[in-house]
Amino acid sequence: MELSVYNIKGEDTGRKVQLNDAIFAVAPNEHAMYLDVKQYLANQRQGTHKSKQRSEIAGSTRKLGRQKGGGGARPGDIKSPVRVGGGRVFGPVPRDYSFKLNKKLKALARKSALSCKAQENNVIVLDTLEFAEPKTKEFIAVLNNLKINGKKALFILPSVNKNVILSARNLQRTNVALATELSTYVILNANVVVLTVDAVEALGQTFKA
């Protein structure tokens, strides 16, 4: 797939860049994307939930009534789960929700997500993205020039650029990620994916490894 290269003013530079078909033109594997997104969201869970079971409730273990002859259910102690203030049956306990996925499956999921964006024509390539100093106003100007302000935008950089990251940090619908640290979730969560020319090459090197 061949795309035009734009500058930060939204102007066509006349250059073309060839996107790697092995990354941007694969048949999307929906199940691989589902598993990768599921793992990403599972890893965000703290897993610190806890409720008290009957053995952890403070109270007497005295039997509240006679076993038979009361005309109702057999009474237990005050900590019984069927009583108000009693313990909870099979309640949540602290646990780790993370699980393992193979590297090849995760790579397939990321390539599938990028291919989906390319098929939807939601990929923009910039010649470069540089700021002299952190300025949110300048980043907003770039969004306006590219006509994507108001959309969820994912900017992919080849390496850490502190000024760009700080400029976009306060924008709720804008995310900046490195080519080597992409996740399927952040790709699918974006309406538009914006790459620099160097980021296109970095993606090729990342998925080649």
For the largest beta-sheet, the strand count, sense and barrel status come to: 6 strands, mixed
Just give the CATH class of the largest domain.
Answer: Alpha Beta
User: What's the structural domain tally?
Assistant: 2
Q: Helical residue percent?
A: 25-40%
β-strand number: 6
Unreliable spans are: none
Order of helices and strands: EEHHHEHEHEHEH
* Category by helix and strand content: alpha/beta
Cα shape: elongated
Report the CATH architecture of the largest domain: 3-Layer(aba) Sandwich
The CATH H-level superfamily of the largest domain is Ribosomal protein L4/L1
Mean pLDDT: 93
Rg calculated over all Cα atoms = 27 Å
End-to-end gap = 22 Å
If helices are DSSP runs of H or I spanning 4 or more residues, what is the number of helices? 7
Overview features:
Ribosomal Protein L4, Chain: A; elongated; alpha/beta; six-stranded mixed sheet; 209 residues; 15% strand; 6 strands; 2 domains
Describe this structure in words.
With 209 residues, this protein is α/β, with parallel strands linked by helices. It has two domains: 2-45 and 99-208, Ribosomal Protein L4, Chain: A, CATH 3.40.1370.10; 52-96, no CATH class. It is built from seven helices and six strands. It has a six-stranded mixed beta sheet with strand order 2-1-3-6-4-5. Helix 4 packs across helix 5 (162-168). It is elongated, with a radius of gyration of 27 Å. The model has no long low-confidence stretch (mean pLDDT 93).
